[in-house]
Design a protein that fits this description.
Layout: H1 6-17, H2 28-43, E1 46-52, H3 67-87, E2 94-95, E3 101-106, H4 108-115, E4 120-125, E5 128-131, H5 139-145, H6 148-153, E6 162-167, E7 185-186, E8 195-197, E9 206-207, H7 223-233, E10 247-252, E11 255-257, H8 260-263, E12 270-274, H9 275-292, E13 294-299, E14 301-302, E15 305-306, H10 316-324, E16 328-332, E17 342-343, E18 352-357, E19 375-378, E20 382-385, E21 392-395, H11 398-415, H12 421-431, E22 433-436, E23 443-446, H13 449-456, E24 463-468, E25 477-484, E26 492-498, E27 504-509, E28 518-522, H14 523-529, E29 531-532, E30 543-550, E31 554-562, E32 567-570, E33 584-589, E34 596-604, E35 613-618, E36 624-629, E37 638-642, H15 643-648, E38 663-668, E39 673-681, E40 686-689, E41 694-696
Parallel strand pairs: 6-10, 6-13, 7-10, 13-16, 16-18, 18-19
Antiparallel strand pairs: 1-3, 1-4, 2-3, 5-12, 5-14, 7-9, 8-11, 11-12, 15-17, 20-21, 22-23, 24-30, 25-28, 25-31, 26-27, 26-30, 27-29, 31-32, 31-41, 33-38, 34-37, 34-39, 35-36, 35-38, 39-40
Helix pairs in contact: 2-4, 7-11, 9-10, 12-13
């Protein structure tokens, strides 16, 4: 707080003495004081976290500073504030090692005294938070769904690194966690007669062997933390977590609470944590990150729902410090099933907010979901270590999804120890599978470990090889097809490279491609409109290599048309293999195109009778044109129909207006089978498979 702000603060304090509460939107620190004063009026006191103002300049709080400089700055700030604390008779003050905060329990007069101090920047109320599992409920299939098995095969399993898990108690004797612990702490604290620490010694804080392992017999206390930790790093030689070679830093931040309001909707007593205990844990991690080789932090707890980012959360500064060290903080988004809102602290912009999915790409019904999330990961019916004994338990929740990301980050960090944080995060987002919830218009990437490692290492990029340049047409003309399967418009950027050297010759950005639409671009147009990056933008050979990045999730194809023979060939190739999503078919020919006929082969792979429902979209606009249900198909059989035959059988297409595109995109709704697109050429008198395509993943 600057000297110039003292007079407004004094005026605000006088208003508080008068009992009038106001909301000063332009002054977040005042709002913090108001929240604290409301708590004082409710209970007679408030637990608060005070952010100190650096006397040496705000840069001393920078996340980029060394731990030693952070400790020195914090110590100096505490010394500056200490006389004020003593004069106000504030006792039981808790300080931090590397974070610019102090915490204490204060009454009305003490709170107002702190609010007037030039050494105080803001005051926040300690917020109660809970565990985020759904106690209703196979790790192996979930691991396969994030493609970490290929990363293990390549030698990347998190070895040499550790994951810190901030949670409740941990059964570290469980075979999946035995021998994993390299550091441990307990910060669950006492608060009068309401909260009692659950640290093994009965005193808080407690740091050292066994500090996070208070697991009474016949108790559920360690169920949640043990389950979460085993998903991140577990390994008993037969059952594995994501970073099976990594170590564990368990941190217990939960206390026993007898307050009915804190426990609601569960009965009291219950176990809760709060923003102060989590801040203590983050301080410990920040100070010991290098010594313990911590690659990632997992927080599967949460509080109130928030729309947008919650960067006013007191913990953001600590998460910023960890991010500057290359450490990801994965936080569960919460289990309220909300759209557009996620729980604190997952809404902090510098954290990695995580939603829960099935082993496929369906967002779990219980998962909170919003565009402020970073990743999705499996969180439905996950079987992992139990809180007591040597057995296993099955749980669902975003609590289970977050450790997939935290463990995955440790795997990434082993593979790429010097790559900057932002580059790793971008690789995970660019290679993730798109997940969405109906009618939200939001797509969040579900992590895919080996593709992300390949991307960050400069391999497995979206590259089409040997695309003919426009001056060489002896074998045909190259076309790039781009399909947008998402619910939002977007563009694709193409980098043209010399096929022999890989050097960049130019870049081209596509026009806007609407949702559910597709467009085809010939190489002559791309060459003509590209922005050259060299004085000689023509390749030395007759070919280009094209590298593509996209703002939307979809598909791409490389096709070649030979004008004289009339042959249209699908030359698509994908470094990661063809797309396994058979639910989207692109660029089907309508009856308006006379020289080619698109034929659909509907294959029923089940044992019983089934049918397919196809949604036809206008290729250019993305507008839905019709829905068609096929006749029933016997199990193991195939039904083949031409698109003109489907048009004729669908009354909604009668008198098709000329304003529509002569091409379709088709969405195949879920059924027991798949659909193949075969193009029949009348001039060339042949059949050409046009089904194969590559996945196009949105870059973030």
């Amino acid at each position: 707080m600057s000297v110039n702000s003292t007079q407004p603060m004094n005026r605000f304090v006088r208003w508080l003495f008068a009992g009038a509460f106001i909301c000063l939107v332009a002054a977040p620190a005042y709002a913090d004081v108001t929240d604290a004063m409301r708590e004082v009026q409710r209970t007679g006191q408030a637990r608060v976290i005070v952010r100190m103002r650096s006397q040496a300049g705000a840069e001393m709080w920078s996340a980029a500073q060394s731990v030693n400089r952070q400790r020195a700055a914090v110590s100096a700030a505490v010394d500056n504030l200490a006389p004020r604390l003593r004069a106000a008779k504030i006792e039981g003050v808790r300080t931090f090692r590397t974070l610019p905060y102090v915490a204490a329990t204060v009454n009305r007069e003490q709170l107002l005294d702190l609010a007037q101090s030039a050494d105080v920047e803001s005051i926040s109320v300690v917020q109660i938070e809970r565990k985020l599992d759904v106690e209703r409920g196979q790790l192996a299939s979930s691991l396969a769904s994030i493609d970490v098995l290929d990363a293990w095969a390549a030698g990347y399993d998190g070895t040499g690194y550790a994951v810190a898990v901030i949670d409740g108690g941990f059964n570290t004797a469980h075979p999946m966690l035995a021998g994993k612990v390299v550091g441990a702490a307990c910060f669950g604290h006492d608060f009068g007669t309401i909260q009692k620490t659950q640290c093994p010694s009965g005193h808080t804080p407690e740091i050292g062997v066994g500090a996070a392992s208070n697991c009474p017999a016949n108790s559920t206390r360690c169920d949640h933390g043990t389950h979460v930790a085993s998903i991140a790093v577990g390994n008993d030689g037969k059952n594995y977590g994501v970073a099976r070679g990594a170590k564990l830093v368990p941190i217990d931040v939960f206390s026993s609470d007898t307050d009915a309001a804190d426990c609601s909707p569960d009965p009291a007593p219950c176990e809760v944590t709060d923003s102060l205990a989590v801040l203590d844990a983050l301080d410990y991690i920040n100070e010991n990150a290098a010594a313990l080789k911590i690659a990632a932090v997992n927080i599967s707890i949460g509080g109130a729902l928030r729309s947008g980012y919650c960067d006013d959360d007191i913990r953001k500064g600590a998460i910023d410090m960890l991010r500057a060290k290359g450490i990801a903080v994965a936080i569960a988004s919460g289990n309220s099933g909300a759209n557009g809102q996620i729980a604190t602290p997952s809404c902090i912009s510098s954290a990695e907010g995580v939603a829960a999915t099935s082993d496929g790409t369906d967002i779990a019904s219980f998962s909170n979901f919003a565009n402020t999330l970073d990743f999705a990961a499996p969180g439905v019916s996950i079987t992992a270590a139990a809180g007591t004994g040597t057995g296993f338990a099955t749980k669902s929740g975003t609590s289970m999804a977050a450790p997939f990301v935290a463990g995955g980050w440790a795997v990434m960090r082993q593979a790429l120890p010097t790559v900057p944080f932002d580059a790793l995060e971008t690789a995970l987002k660019q290679t993730g599978l798109g997940t969405t919830r109906a009618d939200t218009g939001v797509s969040i990437p579900k992590i895919q470990m080996m593709p992300a490692i390949n991307r960050a290492q400069g391999r497995d990029r979206r590259i089409f090889n040997s695309v003919f340049n426009s001056t060489y047409r002896a074998l045909g003309d190259s076309y790039v097809r781009l399909a947008n399967s998402s619910n939002a418009d977007g563009t694709v950027t193409v980098t043209l490279r010399d096929v022999s050297t890989g050097g960049t010759l130019g870049t081209w950005r596509s026009p806007n491609i609407p949702a559910h639409s597709s467009q085809q671009f010939d190489i002559a147009r791309i060459q003509r409109e590209m922005t050259p990056t060299t004085s000689s933008p023509t390749p030395a050979s007759v070919y280009f290599n094209l590298e593509l990045t996209s703002t939307f999730t979809g598909y791409l194809q490389h096709v070649v048309w030979e004008q004289n023979s009339g042959v249209l060939t699908n030359l698509t190739s994908c470094a990661a293999g063809y797309s396994t999503d058979t639910s989207f078919l692109m660029q089907l020919f309508s009856s308006r195109i006379k020289d080619y006929t698109s034929r659909l082969r509907i294959v029923n792979t089940s044992a019983g009778m089934d049918h397919a429902i196809l949604v036809f979209y206008d290729q250019a606009s993305g507008a839905e044109i019709m829905r068609w249900q096929s006749p029933d198909v016997v199990g193991g059989a195939t039904l083949e129909l031409s698109v003109p035959a489907i048009e004729a059988a669908t009354t909604s297409l009668g008198g098709r207006p000329d304003t529509l595109s002569p091409l379709y995109n088709v969405k195949v709704l879920p059924f027991n089978g798949y659909v193949q697109h075969v193009l029949q050429g009348r001039v060339a008198n042949g059949l050409f498979d046009m089904t194969a395509k590559c996945d196009l993943v949105a870059a973030k």
